[in-house]
Amino acid sequence: MKTNISALMSIIAEEEKNFNNLLCNMRGHIFNITIQELDGRETVIEDYKEDFTNELTLLESTYNKLSILKNALFEKNNTLTLSDGRTIQQAISDNSYLRRIKLLYEGVLIHKSTKKRITEVNNSYFESKTLNFDVENINSKLKEIEAKIQQTDFEISKLNSQEFVIEF
Asked: How many CB atoms lie within 10 A of CB 158?
């Protein structure tokens, strides 16, 4: 099968959905239901033996397919490299941490220095809160991080569209 990483991730998501649906269906087909009269006659009300057997076969087949697809995805994510030499998996991990740092910087930049007058019965004073960092420095770092994330995402996107063949 000829595919790329983006399409492969969609196929994996669909197969995982099928796998989970099969697991749920099989739980409902564990038992057959019969009625047994006092004279010994039995009447089958619900017979799921064939359904369960078919679903079990399909479940095992889906598992094998998922295993092959995920192995291919992991292999490609750990062998395809960006221009800076990082693998896709390394770049995804790096971007995850960069996004967390970006959120921190954005949250830090919301704060401003303040001065508040405090008046008590016999005393009055100002409480000052001043930022202990350089706003321009944090803004500069924030822009660098945003550019790095965008560049990495762009390179990952290009690599995700490279086609390759998976053998079943």
From this structure: 12
Quote the domain boundaries for residue 48: 1-79
CA separation for the pair 109, 97 (Å, rounded): 19
| Statement to judge: residues 87 and 75 lie in one domain | no
Q: How many Å apart are CA 34 and CA 119, to the nearest integer?
A: 83
pLDDT score of 168 more than 80? no
pLDDT tier at 99, thresholds 50, 70, 90: very high
Pairing of strands 163-165, 124-129: unpaired
Whole-model pTM: value is 0.76
Residue 21's nearest CA partner among 47, 49, 58, 48 is 58
Please, what is the Cα angle at 72 between 98 and 76, to 5 degrees? 40
What token pair was written down for 79? 């062998």
Say what angle helices 49-79 and 5-27 make with each other, to 10 degrees: 150
Residue 131 lies in a domain: yes
**pLDDT value at residue 53:** 96
